[in-house]
Specification:
Elements: H1 2-17, H2 21-26, H3 43-68, H4 79-83
């Protein structure tokens, strides 16, 4: 039952994420059918989004890196009070 509910929820999210016909007509070729609204108004909008994507990816990479292999080996490190 939980799997069926999850599948229905994912399908509903996918349909809601697609652009409506009016918004799709107003979007530039790169974003056609992906998002709602008028789209980017200048090239600065693309630069800002690219910058945010780079920062997000770097944050994700370093988060995974330090969660998998933190590097602290000292017995007096503060994480030992939580782990032990």
């Amino acid at each position: 039952m939980k799997k069926v509910t999850l599948v229905i929820l994912l399908m509903a999210c996918q349909v809601m994420a697609l652009a409506c016909p009016v918004c799709e007509k107003n979007q530039p070729a790169v974003l056609k059918g992906i998002s709602h609204g008028t789209g980017p108004e200048s090239n600065w909008d693309y630069a800002i989004v690219i910058g945010m994507v780079i920062i997000t990816l770097l944050t994700l990479i370093y988060t995974i890196k330090y969660v998998v292999k933190p590097g602290e080996k000292e017995d007096s490190h503060i994480k030992r009070t939580v782990i032990n």
